[in-house]
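Course assignment 3, question 2. Fill in each field.
Student: A.L.
Task: Predict the tertiary structure for the chain below.
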Amino acid sequence: MHGELGEQQAAAAIAAGYAEAGEDFTAAVNRHRADDTAAVSRLGEIAAQRRELTSRRDTLADRERQLGETSTRLTLERDALVRHRDPLTARVADLAADERLRLLAQTDYVDILAEGTDLLSLLGAQITRADRRRVEIAVEGAEDDRAAAALAATGLLPPVLDVTRALDECENAGIAVTSGWAYLADSVPAQVRAQVLTAAPALANGVLVHNADDLPRARELLTTASLRPTSAVTVATTSDLEAAVTAVTAGAVPSMFVVPTAPALTDRAAAGDEIRLRELARDDRAAEDNSLARQRDVDDELRRSLRALLADCPRATVENLHMQLATYAADLAAVEAELADIRWLN
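Answer field:
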């Protein structure tokens, strides 16, 4: 009875697939228990692998987030450098292409940052030269105004300003005086004026006292007047110049040479030509002054621009910016490559 029951259980186990043909029940149970143990062990391994994969995935996700933040930061910093660099390089390029600076540097290529200090000096010299010349033009214009007023009043050019001031001092003190030029024009025959001028140029260009008795007083007055002339002003008497006229008339030949003077100094008939020539000269000076003013404005603006650039951009700044941007480019490339690897793994 018991044997029949065992055979029935074995047959049922075989029929259910729990045992193999010819395998007894106990062996089948033991095999299944071993399989269960192996399955449990495998499930443990799978669970561990899953935990490892989950941890790795979380680590990659953290790394991806960190790399994303790094990429954003690097991009923002790079873009800020680009915004700083581009205007500077544009300003450098504009100044390097400026024809005025090329002309001053005497080259077709100007290294603005390397030559900036020298260019500032050159521009400063040009501005100073223009200012000085404009002052000279103004002085020449004032002299023309003085000449025009004298020509209108007397028909003659006035003597040099130092002589005019000496004449004014004497006249204000009640001393009768005249200029040597006026005396030549009014009291010396035209045919001998040039010879008299050659014989006594200092008297012709000086102050002549009509009364010889007034000469000591004129000397004292002009000595203490603090006129501070910048040319030699001769003070003599009209009789001294008359002596020169007498010597020339008697046939004396002067041993000196005098550069021919403006005819209107002694010839009223030459006043018209003198006025015309001075008006032409005035027009030329006005054109020169306008040109100088325009060029000075250009040079001054260039100097301001160059000075501002050198303050904002010392010599190595642009090169350093390029190097920093190259570093940012390399760093961003490395970050993007690592991000690509992480995304491929995911």
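Instructor remarks: The chain has a mean pLDDT of 87. Strands lie at 177-179, 207-209, 235-237.
Grade: pending
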